[in-house]
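Hey, can you fold this?
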Amino acid sequence: DKLPYTPTLASTTLGGLTTASTFVLEQPRCVFTEVQGGAVIWLVVAIPKAVDTFNDTVGPGTPERAFQGFPTSAPAYMTLNTTLLNYPCPKPPGEITVLRVGSETSCAKDERRPTCNGPLPGPGPYRVKFLALKGSRPVAETNWSDPIMLRTARPFSGIPVMGSGRSAGMIALTSILSILFAILLAGLVALLVFWGSDVCGGSTFSKSEPVTVRRYNTHHVQDQGAAQL
């Protein structure tokens, strides 16, 4: 059965929707509701030129559908197989229901795992669809997605070097500010030196004059002594 569903990237509120080797899809919740139990849902990843000639009867795990041959000898591969139990309907509120395509690195070169969900080999574009198999027989499929492009790393030569691309006015302004800062710094240093010399040697102390205390006797003390004699 051809199902009226087109796979899409996850919500834009989720970060990292596309990287250099992965992308994130919404899970096909409430899509395969008419499919009988026991079916297995597969994700098919293909290059655009393989879409029109894709053969649903070529099963997963075969050389024509192995990830390790993608995209040279296998223009499409099948991965992320699961049962309908993992795509319950309706979707629980608040639950993040996404699939990250290209997240397995351990099996990327392991030919014993042809259904590996390995990192995508280039920026794309890629197109995907979901395919339900009961045994080896296709029972339902979705539409193909729109082309999906991945991020590309900027070449080292394209990274702007600090200082390149500045105008002459910006360079002149930077030079003037540097000179003014140097003048201000020199002024502060001179002020600190002057203030320090004033504190250390600016105050003088004069020698105090000797204090002379004259001894005297009052007349009434002498008169009392004479009287006692």
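Oh, and this one too while you're at it.
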Amino acid sequence: GLLSRLQISAPTIRTLSSKPFSQNIPSCLWKLGRLNHVAIAVPDLEKAQSLYKDVLGAQVSETVALPEHGVYTVFVELGNTKLELLHPLGEKSPIASFLQKNKTGGMHHICIEVDDIKAAMTELKKKKIRILSEEPKIGAHGKPVIFLHPKDCHGVLVELEQA
């Protein structure tokens, strides 16, 4: 009958293992922490600041120049994380080239905290994840940061920041 045909054609349902998810993750000498910020490249920094401050009512920092990174930064506080608004500082800024390809701006990178950036670098290199600098640079929060190649991170530029 119909019931026996349904039983034959019904797909097999697989259940997840009863093991905790963390048992499937290899132990590391370093730990990934919380999302620190999502960075957004903007062609007009004042207009973007105004959107978050005046229209959406967020707490917005002053503009800070980071010549080593070739950017101006502004942080928008969101309670559990931040947005970082990025604008080019100079013609060789990586944000200038990003905005040439993305005229209206857009998400540039995510930043995740780590408890030991040097150990993270060593282990990631062993796992063939490319790091975009030989040594950490001091980031917008005054802490060491590195960037991971987007082609090794599913198309996302990932910044790791020492917690």
